[in-house]
Amino acid sequence: MKKIITLPATGLKNLIFAMLALSISSFAQADSGKEIVVNGKNLAEKLQWLQANAESNTQYSIVVSGNEKISSQTLSYAGKRRVTVRLSGTAGKEKIISLSSGGPLFTVEDYVTLILDKNIDLQGSCAVNSGGTFTMIGGKISGNRKIYGYSTNSGGGVSLGKDAKFTMTGGEISGNSVNGNGGGVSVGENATFTMTGGEISGNSAERNGGGVYVAGKFLMEGGKISGNAAYDENGNGAYGGGVYVDNGIFKMTGGEISGNIVNGNGGGGGGVSMPEYGDGGDFTMEGGVISGNKTSGCGGGVFAFRGKFNMIDGKISDNTAGVGGGVCGNFTMKGGLISSNKSERGGGIFTKVFMMENGIISNNTAFQSGGGIYGNSSSDYDGVTFNMVGGEISNNTVSSDSKGYGGGIYLSGTATFTMKNGKFYGNSVSGKSGGYGGGLCVGKGENNDYTKFVMEGGEISGNKVSDEGGGIYVNVVNEPSYGFKMNGGEIYGNKAIWAGGGVYVSSGNFSKSGGTIYGYAKGDDKGNRVKEVTSTNDKEGGHAVYINGNPVVRIDTTLNEDIAGAPDCDEERMKTVMLSRECAKIGKGNSDYSQCARNYTAQYKKFEQACRARQ
Question: What are the backbone dihedrals phi and psi of residue 609, each rounded to the nearest 5 degrees, phi first?
Answer without folding.
Answer: -65, -35
